[in-house]
From TrEMBL:
One of its GO terms (cellular component) is extracellular space. It comes from Anopheles darlingi (Mosquito). Keywords: Disulfide bond, Secreted, Signal. It is found in: Secreted. GO terms for biological process: sensory perception of smell. This is Odorant binding protein.
Amino acid sequence: MSRTSFVVAALALVAGIASVTATGRKSELQHYIVEKSFFQAQAECALYQGVADDDLQRYVRTGYPDEEEVRCLLRCIGFNLRFWNQTTGLQKHLVAGHFVPYPNDFHNVERTEACLAENLYHCDDDLCTQVYKAFQCYYQHYGALSECPQFVVNYYNEDLQLAYDTHGLLYTSQPALRNLAGACFPKDEESFCYFRSFNVRGGLYDDHKGWHLGRLYQQYYEQVFHPDNALTIACLANQQKLACKRTKCQHAYESFKACFGASNAHEYQVKVVFAEAAKAILDQPVCHCNKAQLCPLHK
């Protein structure tokens, strides 16, 4: 190979690598997904609350002692990772995800539940104390804190923003918006693609990997989404056999409908989130702007 040919080939290879990297195909796209470890949330909350580095290291080293600053630090972490909220308190399925059970410990769940029962917080406990008591039960009995990031679930307003953004990203047609605003879900390609994009952007679905049961279970906390649910696994496997006869968008919707159609999540997405986002868009001025006539948004 001549020197010139070698240089040309090398440049082509570099261009190819750059192209693949630029498309994001080498790593998972961020979309609207938030993943965070306990220790990342802890560092954020320490910054928010002005906890000194030396104090934070001592708290971790001594197992989070029962001190006011520690209790409120843990309250912040609980809200940061969404394993505690103002309405229903402790979210057991979410906090458990931040702990790794010790090998051959088959009674960690029982001990944790017994601890929670024995250490019920009282009405006169402040919020920091409530979170602290619950956290200590998991810290002492469930397992070791995981260093791996976990999926952070969305609240309703975030789902609404996600749905609203997806309309903008796809430029949903007016007829489709009116159908969705009426909590109707017509079985056409535009609706299928909206459904698929919403769930892809939310980190719940992937064209290659399918439905992410772990995240679905964390988000909606329904048994049909449990990663070990045998009926669900079989249903998704059967649906995959039909994928070659469907478009990507159609397969996303039809597989969800077939395996999770009776879930609250399906009704929540279609009849609540999609409907409210579409209504919000329809309430805005519709712009068909040209040089002769400008709509109110562009004056």
